[in-house]
């Protein structure tokens, strides 16, 4: 399982995305941090097997999690599944 976390340790708002969406989300996290918002990024590098335990751990302290994707919302449904 490959994944990357950026400033997720103290994030109140976690953005989860992969591929091109993650690149855009990384820029958003940088801008939000500059504005004083504790935002972080969780980026799975591979989707199979999905790093669900790692995502759950990264999201543990967050108030909100935003899943961004540029397809038919298949990944966000996968994230929501137990």
How would you characterize this protein structure?
With 82 residues, the chain is of the alpha/beta class. It has a domain of 47 residues. 37% of the residues lie in helices and 24% in strands. It has 3 helices and 4 strands. It has a 4-stranded mixed beta sheet with strand order 1-3-2-4, sandwiched between helices. The protein is globular. The mean pLDDT is 90.
Ordered list of secondary-structure elements with their pairings:
Layout: E1 3-6, E2 13-17, H1 20-34, E3 39-44, H2 52-59, E4 64-68, H3 74-80
Parallel strand pairs: 2-3, 2-4
Antiparallel strand pairs: 1-3
Structure keywords:
82 residues, 3 helices, alpha/beta, 4-stranded mixed beta sheet, single chain
Brief characterization of the structure:
This protein has about 80 residues and is of the alpha/beta class. It contains 3 helices and 4 strands; from the N terminus they run E-E-H-E-H-E-H.
Helix content: 25-40%
Low-confidence residue ranges: none
Number of helices: 3
Structural class determined from secondary elements = alpha/beta
Instruction: Give the neighbour order of strands across the main sheet.
Output: 1-3-2-4
Along the chain, the helix and strand elements come as: EEHEHEH
- Please state the overall shape, judged from the principal axes of the Cα atoms: globular
Q: Give a short account of the largest sheet.
A: 4 strands, mixed
Question: How far apart, in Å, are the first and last alpha carbons?
Answer: 18 Å
Mean pLDDT: 90
What is the radius of gyration computed over CA atoms, rounded to a whole number of angstroms?
Answer: 12 Å
Strand content range: 15-25%
DSSP summary, beta strand count: 4
